[in-house]
Write a structure and sequence with these properties.
The structure is a single chain. This protein is of the alpha+beta class. The protein has two domains: about 170 residues, 3-Layer(aba) Sandwich (Aminopeptidase); about 190 residues, 3-Layer(aba) Sandwich (Aminopeptidase). Helix content is about 35%, strand content about 30%. The strands form two sheets. Strands 1, 2, 3, 4, 5, 8, 9, 10, 11, 12, 13, 14, 15 and 16 form a 14-stranded mixed sheet that branches. A two-stranded antiparallel sheet has the order 6-7.
C-alpha cells in the first residue's frame, strides 16, 4: 500500500509519535493544546513580526498514521546568519524507508518552492526550543524540553542524504542530595560577598519583571552563538506562557549587579512523568495526576542559563550554579538536567562539568543541500 501524505491534519500529527514508537518508548509529547498553539497562526514566530512560515505533514497507510514532520522558514535567522535555509522539525516516524522518504520529500519540496537552498533539523521550532536528533544515549528518559528519538530516525535521515552536523549533548547532575557543593575559587567567593551583587527575589509579584530580565540576559549572552536569533518580548512571552505557572521560584535565580540584570538560571520541575501518565491530553483525572506528580517529583530541568557579556569570565557563573544547586538540594530534588549544550560552546560544557554533570544524550542536526 502506498504512503499518503496529508497536510494540516493536527489530530494525526499529535498521534503520530505514539503510533510510531509505542507506549513503552521514552518519548514524551508536549500537551496537545500547547502543541496546537505552537503550530498555530498565533505563534509570533510564524506570523506577523516573526517573518516566518510553517506547515506540517503526516504520513498514512490506510487508517494508520505512520509519521509526521514540520517544514518552516525563519526569515530573521536567514538574514542575520546570511543563509538560505529551511527547517524540518518534529520528525517522528516508524522504521520504514518509504515513510521517511515521503515525509522528507514533502518538507524539502515546501522549502524548494520558497527558493531555499538547504534544509536542517530537527528544529522544533527554533534554536531556543527543542532541537536535534538523538544519536546516542537512547535509554535515558528525557527531561521536559529535551528531544528524544529512537536510533532509526538518524539512520533514516542518513539514508535520505542528510549529514550529521552541529554535535550537542544533554547533561544531568545526578545524586544532588549527596553531591558536594560547586567548588568556588577565591574570585567566586569575592563575588558572593560583594554587596554590589545580589540575587533578586522571584515572587508572584516580581515574576513578569524577572522573566523580562531573563530575556535580556538570554539575548545578550547568546548573541555570538551560531544560529541564535534575538528573541522579541512577544516571542519570549508566548513561549514562556506555560512556564510561568510551573517555574520553580525556589531554585530559579536572577542575579543583579549594581541593580541591573547580570545573570540568570531558569529552572522548572520535570513535568515529563506527569505528561506520560496523561498521554499529554487533558482529562477528568488530570488534576489528580498533577497533584500526585507534584508530591513525588524529584527531578528539575535547567531551561537556560546566561551571564551578561561584560561579566563573562569574571567568575559569576559558578556563583549562580552554586546558588541553584544548593537551593535544589534544599527543595528535595535528586537530579537536575539541562536542555542541550553545543560542542562549539566549550565554556558552557566546562561549567556543566564543574557542576558535576554527566552526559545523557548525544544529539546532532541533520542537514542537506537543496541546490
Amino acid at each position: 500500500m502506498t504512503v499518503e501524505i496529508r497536510v494540516g491534519d493536527f489530530d494525526a500529527f499529535f498521534a503520530a509519535p505514539f503510533e510510531a514508537y509505542g507506549a513503552d518508548s521514552p518519548y514524551v509529547s508536549p500537551l496537545k493544546g500547547d502543541l496546537r498553539r505552537l503550530l498555530g497562526d498565533g505563534n509570533p514566530l510564524i506570523s506577523g513580526a516573526g517573518d516566518g512560515a510553517l506547515t506540517y505533514f503526516t504520513a498514512h497507510r490506510g487508517a494508520r498514521v505512520l509519521g509526521r514532520i514540520t517544514a518552516h522558514v525563519h526569515g530573521a535567522s536567514n538574514r542575520l546568519h546570511e543563509v538560505s535555509r529551511g527547517y524540518f522539525g518534529y520528525f517522528d516516524c516508524v522504521d520504514d524507508h518509504a515513510v521517511a522518504a515521503a515525509l522528507l520529500r514533502a518538507a524539502e519540496a515546501w522549502c524548494r518552492a520558497r527558493g531555499l537552498r538547504e534544509i536542517a533539523g530537527n528544529f522544533n521550532l527554533t534554536a531556543m526550543q527543542q532541537i536535534g536528533v538523538v544519536t546516542d544515549g537512547f535509554d535515558h528518559a528525557p527531561y521536559l524540553d529535551q528531544v528524544w528519538s529512537p536510533p532509526h530516525i538518524a539512520r533514516l535521515l542518513e539514508a535520505n542524504g542528510y549529514i550529521a552536523t552541529f554535535p550537542m549533548a544533554t547533561m544531568e547532575v545526578r545524586g544532588v542530595q549527596e553531591a558536594p557543593s560547586v567548588r568556588l575559587s577565591d574570585k567566586n567567593r569575592a563575588i558572593s560577598e560583594d554587596p554590589e551583587f545580589a540575587f533578586a527575589p522571584i515572587t508572584r509579584r516580581t515574576l513578569a519583571q524577572r522573566l523580562e530580565e531573563a530575556r535580556l540576559i538570554l539575548n545578550a549572552s547568546f548573541a555570538d552563538n551560531p544560529m541564535f536569533v534575538p528573541v522579541s518580548a512577544e516571542e519570549f512571552h508566548f513561549q514562556a506562557k506555560d512556564m510561568k505557572w510551573v517555574m520553580d521560584k525556589r531554585i530559579s535565580a536572577v542575579l543583579h549587579h549594581k541593580g541591573a540584570p547580570a545573570g540568570c538560571v531558569i529552572c522548572v520541575p520535570d513535568m515529563n512523568p506527569f505528561l506520560r501518565r496523561i498521554r499529554s491530553r487533558l482529562g477528568l483525572s488530570t488534576p489528580w495526576h498533577f497533584l500526585r506528580h507534584r508530591r513525588s517529583n524529584t527531578r528539575a530541568v535547567l531551561i537556560f542559563a546566561g551571564v551578561m557579556p561584560h561579566l563573562q569570565g569574571r567568575g559569576v557563573n559558578p556563583v549562580i550554579l552554586d546558588h541553584v544547586l544548593t537551593r535544589a538540594k534544599a527543595a528535595g530534588y535528586t537530579s537536575v538536567g539541562n536542555t542541550w549544550v553545543a560542542d562549539v560552546n566549550p565554556m558552557s560544557l566546562a561549567q556543566a562539568e564543574k557542576a558535576g554533570s554527566t552526559r545523557m544524550h548525544r544529539l546532532h542536526l541533520f542537514a542537506k543541500s537543496l541546490a
